[in-house]
Amino acid sequence: MNSTYTPTASSKTRAIVINALFIALTFVATMFINIRLPIMGNGGLIHLGNVPLFIAALVYGKKTGAIAGAFGMGLFDVVSGWAIWSPFTFVIVGTMGFLVGLISEKATGNRVLASTLAIVVALIVKIVGYYFAEVILYGNWIQPFGSVPGNFLQVAVAGIIVVPLVGRIKKRAGQI
To answer: How many helices (H) and strands (E) are present in the chain, helices listed first?
Structure first.
């Protein structure tokens, strides 16, 4: 048996694989499952990238949530032609993933309520974060309001999909 194979090395490898998987899932769901809204300004892109992001955060915690969000959606911005958004996305969506995971890790009692609260916090971070990102990029305090409906919808839809499923997903992930 290889003497360098230890449970610590194995757990590090597992963490790398899980993080890479959720980066990829977040990127793919953002890139290929989306609808562009015809609203002023950036308008908003409704996508399902928040679904794997929230699953990563709620099942594997704040670190995986932050990594999946920051790198998965940040990479989407770079390859989709919206590279100027990438630094904002990295910070905003990374923060969303971190906070969702943190709330989930600290929660005791009703997991559905905790997951719902975590998604609401992510919603606030997304709306406020992208509002100020657009103020910086567009130099306008009014135009960014056009993106609020799209940002609200994409997080709300992801929450509606994830919250009822995450308990079962977490149980299955624990069996692997």
So the answer is: 6, 2
| Per-domain residue ranges of the chain | 7-175
SS3 (DSSP) at 45: strand
- Complete DSSP assignment for 50-65: HHHHHHHHHHH-HHHH
Average pLDDT of the residues of the chain: 91
CB proximity list for 29: less than 8 A, separation 6 or greater:
47, 48, 49, 51, 52
- Which H or E run includes 112? helix 111-138
Where on the phi/psi map is residue 38: left (φ > 0), alpha (ψ -120 to 50), or beta? beta
Enter the DSSP assignment of 18.
Answer: H
Looking at per-residue confidence, does 2 or 95 come out higher? 95
Report how far residue 91's alpha carbon sits from residue 65's, in angstroms, rounded to the nearest whole number.
Answer: 12
First to last CA, the chain: 23
pTM summary value: 0.90
The CATH number given to 7-175 is 1.10.1760.20
Rounded CA gap, 117 and 104, in Å?
Answer: 9
Lowest mean pLDDT among 24-33, 51-60, 82-91, 147-156: 147-156
Give residue-wise pLDDT tens across range 25-38: 999 999 998 887 66
